[in-house]
Every structure is written in C-alpha cells, then in structure tokens.
Write a structure and sequence with these properties.
Strand content: over 45%
Shape: globular
Strand order of the largest sheet: 7-9-14-11-12
Distance between the termini: 44 Å
Amino acid sequence: MATFAEAVILDITHRGRGHFVVDALDAGLHSQSQLAYTDGPFACRALVNADDRPVRALRVQADGPWTIEATAVSSASVLDGAARCPASDVLRYEGGPGIASLCHEGDPRAEDGGYFLVDTFERDGNGFLDELANHVGPWRGEVPLTGPCLIYARSDGPWSISVQPL
C-alpha cells in the first residue's frame, strides 16, 4: 500500500504476459478508479490526487514483475504543439487557449475498441478543469483547450493530440 498526500504522477509498468490491473483506492479502501487494466507487457503514466477523490492506496493484480514509481507533477512531458502516446499519459500544456485535435486509435485486443478519457487539471495538479473526451473505441475530434494546464489521458491504446493556438 502507498499513501499520497498531494497530486503525483505514477509511472506504472508491467512485464508479465497475462492480466494486469491497478486500482486507486479511497480512504475506505474501495476502488475509485482503474489506473491500468490490460494483458501483457504495459507501461503508462497516471495522475492521482488532482481532484476531490484522494487516493489512499493502490491495489495491484499482476502475473509478473511490475513497478509503480511516484514522481512530481512537474515531471509531466511538455506538450509542444503535438504528441503521440502509446497508452495513458500526463502532459503539461504551457500555451494559451486553443483547439485540441484528439485521436484515439483504439485497442484492437478489446472487443469494444478500448477506452479514451481525457481530462484537464490545474498546472500544479490541484483541481479539475474540464473533460475533453470520454469515448469507447477509435475516435477523432476537436475540443477547446484552456491553457496552461495538465492533460491526463486514460487510454489502453495509442492516442495523439495536437493544439492549434487561437
């Protein structure tokens, strides 16, 4: 179990061949969200404690070696115009308002095509700002993006983002 008092980014990896699940647990040790749910080798980044649902602990189910390391919110990769990510990730957008073009390629292993949820948070990770996408399966769209902010995309497949400043 791990306890986090402030917003942090979790670097999550799994090197096993089978099932891998990471659940964020609340103070009552009930699952509040899944940070990873996949099969086989996997790596992603997750943002926790950036909203009003503090994480008290993590529950990991894995068939092989795994690691989870907490890093500062400042370790988020800078989104400089465009980025492509293989799975869930946290990006730091330093620009002003713009239009974000999002593309979720989907997960061909999932019957439903996989999930894609993108939220924005305050730059320091202390507060939810907006939901940019919430879709199942491959998806492409454009959405307004306020800036600067943290962008947290939860995805079990490849996705990309590009921003056209206003």
